Amino acid sequence: MEPKRKTIFLDRDGTINVDTGAVHDIGDWAFTEGAVEALGILQQAGYALAVVTNQAALADGRTSEEKVGAIHERMLHDLERVGVRIDSIAYCPHAADAGCLCRKPRPGLLDTIEDALGSIDRKGSWMIGDKESDVGFGRNIGVQTSLIRSRYWDSDTLTEKPDRIVDSLLEFARFISPPS
Ligand SMILES: [Mg+2]
Ligand SMILES: [Zn+2]
After folding, report:
1. Residue ranges of the chain with per-residue pLDDT less than 70
2. What does each C-alpha distance from 157 to 128, 135, 137, 164 come to in angstroms?
3. Measured in angstroms, how far is the CA atom of residue 124 from the centroid of ligand 2?
4. Hey, which residues are catalytic here?
């Protein structure tokens, strides 16, 4: 039997790349500061890397499968050049009110990731993102959770308590794998 893989589940917009509010075209794509280094650290530490992203803009035509695909190609290509591999990408294409099972915080995207990677070592895995729905997703699939400080939440109204709050993906990576 294949060993279960420790995995870092990563939100996309606001975690890996700058969240401009509308990341629909290649021109909208820019890594957050330190994100490329962070992904390298996490991969070196032995984790599979899995992106899980809500892309409701697909549901109302603000973007298309082709554009989303082009952005992901760009992300994978830029990372490949520095030796980093994203192992799997899963996205929810449905509207926020569609009631689907795959929009975070609902857990459906895990199925896509496990189809690609095999079963996940949940206790040894993490979800990181910049919204409470990311923490909720992590909780719903039984992994540890980290929340990046962002304009989308404040500590007074936070109902999903993450295991760790950080300023960036890089800070999280250095927590998982401290520099020696
Ligand atoms: Mg986000
Ligand atoms: Zn969905």
Report:
1. 1
2. 19, 14, 18, 16
3. 26
4. 11, 13
